[in-house]
């Protein structure tokens, strides 16, 4: 972890624009619970989690934070923190229990009321259309392997836009395609637990990109130009070993967008497999060498659909990986972690500088205003004898990352907003309830909420538009 670049004269180094939005993020499957209430259909996460051995301690998302019944009180807590924006996702099978066809009005009512209450509280809604909880019925028809899914997703988007489009101005189509495909369809440790060959995973990836493009078309048609649309890939940036040496900076930037840069993962984890087609209308050139079958599933007209103009670039960032320049074909090599490098409770390394380099490079490449839609850490938080949650490590972590993001702002990168992950402790997928990422502690037995110290700290950051980050 690099030393913070600034100490006393913070304002000389960091800048958050006047209209910068401070928010927190969540997703439906991770907080809502009420998995079979009011006509909701099951998602692949309900079925995957109900099979013993798939999730730590066989924990399921069926109740989780019970946000479906606590949303009003939770909005009051958001107001206490002073949140200006709230990112949540819509459960496709709550709106369309079969994924298409019959609409569940009660499901739509839930999001309709949520949006109204958020706006009443002065909090801007940022819905995500897909945060991994694919309707089981759609999965049974082949899910992401079936090209038809692009139209089913367009239908679902239309239903949501018809109901919320008069009030929602910011839309996120997909959350982290590379993670849900990589884990769910290649590694198999996430729902639906498949281990497909790489060519089939790429076919799914192409269908995700197509579904994204169709959703943008539908939103533009239904909501018009006044809505702002983007998506939010995951990024594991390559970071320069020496941030003052130009050759290492150049090597890290090159690696970050190199289709072969995989970070800790597999080929398609690099965001250029997603962001290049979406923003430039082209897949990385090596796609066809890598997956010759791509000729069969990419139709010429698809690239136009995928390449819809967007209004912002959103991304999720937790940590990167250090590289240095190297005298080899690719021009960079990975630097092994230092012994005893600090990590979070999830064993994730701590690399705040990625929130400086990442936005800078993303802006140079894609030229759009930037939102961080997820950033945060899990910690072994508990309620202390004095009734409080002393998560000073989270405060330190967020301070470091936010200073770096503010440094990008000072370097004239158009930073538009920051969403902490997460508002509440919640269901961390295959890890069940083991990882606590929230600003608010949740007792999953009683549903009692307790604002952690970091929530009070974040309130001050928001109130001062980042000036308190010293
Ligand atoms: C993801 C998801 C979130 C996670 C968070 C912490 O990035 O995996 O968008 O749902 O909970 O990132 O792992």
The main β sheet shows up as: 9 strands, parallel
Poorly predicted parts: none
The N- to C-terminal Cα distance equals 18 Å
Task: Quickly give the structural class.
Answer: alpha/beta
Q: Which quaternary structure do these chains form?
A: single chain
Radius of gyration from the alpha-carbon trace, in angstroms: 21 Å
Mean pLDDT: 95
Strand content range = 5-15%
Count of discrete domains: 1
CATH level-four homologous superfamily name: Glycosidases
Description:
This protein has 470 residues and is α/β, with parallel strands linked by helices. It has a single domain, classed as Glycosidases (TIM Barrel, Alpha-Beta Barrel). 38% of the residues lie in helices and 14% in strands. It is built from 17 helices and 14 strands. The strands form 3 sheets. It has a 9-stranded parallel sheet. The longest helix is centred in the middle third of the chain and has 26 residues. The two termini are 18 Å apart. The structure holds D-gluconic acid (GCO). D-gluconic acid (GCO) binds next to loops.
Structure in a nutshell:
The protein is of the alpha/beta class. The chain has helices at 28-31, 44-50, 67-81, 92-95, 105-120, 136-139, 149-164, 177-187, 198-223, 246-256, 272-280, 287-290, 294-297, 302-306, 354-366, 392-410, 453-463; strands at residues 21-25, 85-89, 124-130, 170-175, 228-232, 234-235, 238-240, 313-317, 321-325, 332-334, 370-374, 415-421, 440-442, 449-451.
